[in-house]
Amino acid sequence: MSCLLRAEAISKTYDTHMGWFRKHSQVALHNVSFELHEGKSLAVMGNNGSGKSTLAAIIAGAIAPTSGELFFQGTKLLSGDFKNRAQNIRMVFQDSEASLNPHKTIGKQLHEALWFNTKLTLTQRNDLITSTLLRVGLLDEHRVFYPYMMSNGQRQRACIARAIILNPKVLVADEALANLDTSVRAQILNLLLDLQDDFKMSYIFITHSPEIAHHMADHVLVLKDGAVESYSLTTTAIEK
Question: For the chain, does the N or the C end have fewer beta carbons within 10 angstroms?
Fold first, then answer.
């Protein structure tokens, strides 16, 4: 089984200037390494402030590491290669309402992802939007909905649709289930499992939940104060 995404000694330090001559450095990540294989899932756990979301942002290309390197399919990911990241590594955030543009319909937001990253015709884009909405459990009519017209679970499905519409290899879910009711959370979990089977995607779950980690992940990476506390197989992976 080939390695899809590899992190080597990823570190991130934030510098805060305190007055003219003083500078305070805060280490968010220190020498974090892991491997993610094709079709597999990695759960990243830790307390608040452990560096989980910083790691997710670095993987998605939102911020650059202070040191260390990321490799995708054996090729080093450059910080400025936004198109390659946008096509292959997509992200679903915790707050679906904040991550969607309130002034644009769901269809428009899906259309923009295709417009900027593909050479599909208008008809092909519309067909793909329809099939993607249906695949995540929404209706084609939802393309004309604004985010405020949808429930929290529907908005998260729309965010997942936006993430998978480019057929990425890696999906990063940053506490994407935390704001959902228990029943809706179970539905979204099952949807993500089905999508992984259909599209052979690899997942990185940023989560506080041991249950989600056990149910969804093959490996668990535990961070403490920005460093790796443990990196191990889950019992689910062992049972497989």
Answer: N
pLDDT tens across 216-239, in order?
899 999 999 999 999 988 755 544
| Structural domain of 173 | 3-239
Whether residue 64 contacts residue 54, with contact meaning beta carbons closer than 8 Å, is answered with no
Alpha-carbon distance 56 to 223, whole Å? 12
8 A C-beta contact, residue 148 and residue 158: no
Determine the Cα–Cα distance for residues 98 and 85; give it in Å rounded to an integer: 21
pLDDT band at 20 (very low <50, low <70, confident <90, very high): low
Domain count, the chain: 1
Query: pLDDT tens digits for 85-137?
Result: 878 999 998 888 899 999 999 999 999 999 989 899 999 999 999 999 999 99
- CATH of residue 23's domain is 3.40.50.300
